[in-house]
Batch of 2 targets.
Target 1
Amino acid sequence: MNLTIIGSGYVGLTTGACFANVGHHVMCVDNNPDKIAKLLNGEIPIYEPGLEEVVKNTVGAGRLRFTTSTEEGVDFGDVIFIAVPTPPQPDGSVDLRFIEKVAREISEVIKSYKVIVDKSTVPVKTGEKVADTIKRYQPEVAFDVVSNPEFLREGCAVDDLMHPDRIVIGTNSDRALALMQKVYEPFLAPILVTDINSAELIKHAANSFLALKISYINAVSQICEASGADVEKVAEGIGADKRIGRHFLNAGIGYGGSCFPKDIAAFIAISDQLGCPFTLLKEVQAINVNMMQRFLKTIREALWVLDDKKIAVWGLAFKNNTDDIRSSVAIELVQALLKEGAKVTVYDPKGMENAKQLSWAGQITFAESPMGCVDGAEALIVATEWPEFASQDFVEVKRRMLAPLIFDGRNLLDTTTMKDLGFRYTGIGRGVA
Ligand code: UDX
């Protein structure tokens, strides 16, 4: 099939590349000429394992191309996917101006029947508005609007796209459904067909539920700390129940990234607008913010004064396997340490280039390795769950540090091992060893 993706950001580019990978012909559109020039030049603007290879192969096979022209894209595709940003507004609701703009642009150039698919994460009822907008500006040409939310995780996006748990298709048109089924046929994944509103809601409800699981175990971790229990054992015990599951029960300094914080705020906002305040999710947010504050307090209590102390931080990305530092708790933590006068040295396997672009980057020292980062440090903080941090030589780490203090914000290290090596080790919900 010929498919068009409007918006070649994280979701758009990876989705387009994976569609091309299964044999479709894909045109990715973006209004940023620099981004398109880079892509045409074979440069991938983001770090995502496996993506570069898929893009290279599919471009080489003539199945993936790029353009800045919406008209060219709309002419090309039988199905047009909208994957533009949906940033948050100050009150948490979603700024839908980019979606609205694309709807208007499509209405200006559409010449024959197209299926227009909302891939961006949007509040329930957005599909209806997209359809109204296109119809208002272009009443002649037939089209259908479909909601098809994306569930990919950064760091394993290609795998998530190639082997999805499920595909959700929200539509009330048989014609559109038949085309969408053809798009997804090669993925051999279960397809759930719903109305548009339900599909939109599934995305917000899924992300909020995952965040709720994280905040739940984080709240439990506080009770573990107060009672001397170990949250890792508790997570194992409750996660072994198939109805609960072990995934997303990793206690830590909280969730971050470009999705969870934004999507939960958006779900709260749309629920408020619909007259059904989702107060449970407000608690999920509050617990998340509190985790970082509690962690800081623990560090402060151990070091007493942070001013002028050299602190090593392992991790900047919002999670492992990505260079993405947007809404990263690790970044917030570094900022908080700097505010208290600490001298912060950081290391992250992929996130440092993005961090160097921050306006306050000059206040931190970027190390070239995890080992270089801990030289002369009075404390080591683990802020991102990169597996390579766990496999460091901790005898050498201890030798290089000024004092053997580790604060593990991701429960990445083993308590007993750290204690046996002579560290004063503090995790989340595990007590102090
Ligand atoms: C998330 C959803 O998982 C994905 O389905 C959706 O499409 C986009 O949002 P992503 O933001 O890429 O994906 O990352 P995810 O792996 O979900 O992690 C989000 C945050 O939660 C990270 O900061 C991570 O460190 C944290 N996390 C995750 C925990 O603190 N504990 C856990 O058990 C799991």
Target 2
Amino acid sequence: MAIERTFSIIKPDATKRNLTGAINAVIEKAGLRIVAQKRVKWSNAQAEAFYGVHKERPFFKDLVSFMISGPVVVQVLEGENAVAKYRDVMGATNPANAAPGTIRKEFAESIEANSVHGSDSADNAKIEIGQNFTDAEIVG
Ligand code: ADP
Ligand code: MG
């Protein structure tokens, strides 16, 4: 399996509770390298653009409000099979269904305030990384 990159967000529920380091420890322990990282506050337009794929879903408005309710830490993670591996490390969308040891099981508050985002495919990872980082900001 080739080395690949995925896009990650530590969401406002986690940054508010000072969990950035604890989540990064789980990421690194899983063998993923944080090759880019910055703490930012998204605008409404940025959050709407990022989650545009969900704009017809009933939770879209709430999700956008949540994602701009505090800082987020955006990251590029690198490693073998990084996209699928990070989905495993995150756990299920709803923390009630997440496996023990996953980030969402350990830290998430609810199906919405679920602490982390990870790309769902290699194609989306490329798009999401490009929306959030310049090439010069990613140092492998
Ligand atoms: P994932 O983040 O696991 O890929 P989705 O792409 O389906 O999940 O949803 C994007 C985000 O929208 C979720 O991480 C969560 O924050 C929020 N979300 C998903 N489903 C719901 C729901 N039923 N109610 C509220 N928020 C939701
Ligand atoms: Mg998703």
